[in-house]
Please model this.
Amino acid sequence: YRVTLNHKEDHGEDWSSVLRACHKRCAERTLRVLEKNGSIFIKLGQHLSSMNYLLPLEWTTTFIPLQDRCPVSSYESIKQMFIDDTGKPIDSHFETFEKLPIGAASLAQVHLATMKDTGQRVAVKVQHPALAEWVPLDLALTRMTFVVLKKFFPEYDLEWLSNEMELSLPQELDFALEGNNALRTKEHFSNIRDIPLVIPDIVWGLKRILVMDDSNGIDRDEVSASLARCFNEMIFGDTALHCDPHGGNIAVRKNESRGKPNFDIILYDHGLYRDIPQQLRRSYAKLWLAVIDANEHDMRKYAHEVAGVTDDQFPLFASAITGRDYRAVTQSVISTRSDQEKEEISGAMGDGLLQQLVQLLGQVPRIILLILKTNDLSKFPF
Model:
């Protein structure tokens, strides 16, 4: 990056394409490093892939494979973890237990099984056994990486990202807490019949093992509107927010008995939740109403209330949360983005806007960062 940035004047009109190529090279190199190190580094890459409001497109799209391309722990290590954590072997809990997982993520993998006493078909989420040994070191390395990055590139201060990981990761690694989060969400949405959200029943859970009812999922692409309603309810309603709704944690199944819509949305991985204070919910809602109405006065007012954004910082913040040029935000955010607007935003990122945005997000409350992450991952149609 430093070499490329130091020769900006040499490229003239080709600067934009040169910078994009540099973004792509660095992103691909980083992807290989994250995949090789595994563990929480894949979790970090997943988080970065959702940061469309901060990182160039070349970075976020390059990291998308990390959402569903993760290492698998051996069956032998899973058997030993059951003995360590429950005091009994796997076959004392389950009549059948499939050795190959049906899915693997950065922190865990899922096996299909049948309960020994009831014959119930279940999905067993097991934490990667090696995490217990390596997570403290990996967190320290992540923190050191961002400290070094800040030393050589002081304009890119991403220490807040490692701070957030140190706060969130212990919660995500506690599957008993995840089970409680799932039950809370299930209870809340059971009273909202027109939102087709399904949370699998929890059979039992420990810190590293979670057994839940098996709900098979299919294509997710046809249900974006209902998905947006689910997460709008979590952000603006009266329940906790699921902060990690990427494609690997969502599935869809047909349900002709429901009527309309004729499908269920199944939500998995309830490890990372946040409770949003009621006043923040209201102010955040009013912020988006002001954005829709192109009411700049109210946008500035509620941006300050929810994120402490000053008048000088507001144009940058408004562009970040909408993905639009500031002039479009103050006129009509509903209008279609032109090719010229996309090019101007991309060019601005290379002209110092990116480091300003990094600095701004370092000052924003962490709950707002998680809300923005959820917005991007669930593709909210604002």
